Amino acid sequence: MKLALTIAGSDSGGGAGIQADLKTFSAHGVFGMSVITSVTAQNTKAVIGVEDISPEMVYLQIKAVFEDLPPDAVKIGMVSSASIIRSVAKGLDEFGPEKVVLDPVMISKSGHALLKPDAVEALKRELLPRCLVVTPNIPEAKALTGMSIKGVEDMERAAEKIMSYGCRAVVVKGGHLEGDAVDVFFDGREFHRLKSERIFSRNTHGTGCTFSSAIAANLALGRDLFTAVKLAKEYITGAIKNSMDIGGGAGPVHHFYELYRRAGLNV
Ligand SMILES: Nc1ncnc2c1ncn2[C@@H]1O[C@H](COP(=O)(O)OP(=O)(O)OP(=O)(O)O)[C@@H](O)[C@H]1O
Ligand SMILES: Cc1ncc(COP(=O)(O)O)c(N)n1
């Protein structure tokens, strides 16, 4: 059995954060573990409360996992504050996982800040250099680079700048632009454009969390980085196509669409 760890926030609504990550790991046949950084009171419509876990407790969860269940890959999502970021960086340095995927979560789809404004610098300095790949969406890529991003060429320029912060690869996600959903992959040598048709659905809660944890699951399974990103893009496209119309806002994507279909269940 391969093992994957998510270091992220809890979403009580079950569509994003830790809950989306664990479902994604399970859908890939990978055993999932979690380090909770923050608890959000959240549903498909809004985030109505956020309470951070203490930095010491974040570090202890990392230690507990690594000392007994060393993960084959790690995904990092919501990290909330500079002090939590420092605890995560300390854990990464101490236990040295090779395959770390960073989704630099800043704002929820419903518009709530999930990273304190003064923590953006800490994220850049402390976490990016410790990661194999970072997966910003357009607003996050803008915040990380200070660049304006209006199309795929701008995404490529932003990817180059983000690489200069010390990670080994970048995927700038195009979900927030119009037209086809094009993601830009850059590993310092080559650019690849990963394209899918835009799916017109309001039920896209958790797309970024699901995409980054699918990359981590595929890395845990031993796939090379570009293959892991391509497979994650296929998986998120299917999960959005089969997303669920539940709740009064942006419903969740369907993490188990493939298993349900194979089992003859309704998706
Ligand atoms: N409407 C859509 N149709 C097809 N693919 C989409 C759509 N929206 C997002 N995607 C894809 O989903 C993945 C996640 O991209 P997105 O830009 O939504 O991330 P995100 O904003 O970080 O997600 P989140 O809102 O969960 O934080 C990317 O591969 C993107 O291309
Ligand atoms: C705990 C947590 N982590 C990440 C997201 C981002 O997901 P989305 O942008 O789909 O709201 C979220 N809403 N909550």
From TrEMBL:
Pfam families, per database record: Phos_pyr_kin
Gene3D superfamilies found in the cross-reference section: 3.40.1190.20
An example Gene Ontology molecular-function term: ATP binding
GO biological process, one term: thiamine biosynthetic process
Family annotation (InterPro entries): HMP/HMP-P_kinase_dom, PM/HMP-P_kinase-1, Ribokinase-like
Catalytic activity entry: 4-amino-2-methyl-5-(phosphooxymethyl)pyrimidine + ATP = 4-amino-2-methyl-5-(diphosphooxymethyl)pyrimidine + ADP; 4-amino-5-hydroxymethyl-2-methylpyrimidine + ATP = 4-amino-2-methyl-5-(phosphooxymethyl)pyrimidine + ADP + H(+)
Top-rank lineage group of the source organism: Bacteria
Family: Belongs to the ThiD family.
Protein name per Swiss-Prot or TrEMBL: Hydroxymethylpyrimidine/phosphomethylpyrimidine kinase
Protein's organism: Thermosediminibacter oceani (strain ATCC BAA-1034 / DSM 16646 / JW/IW-1228P)
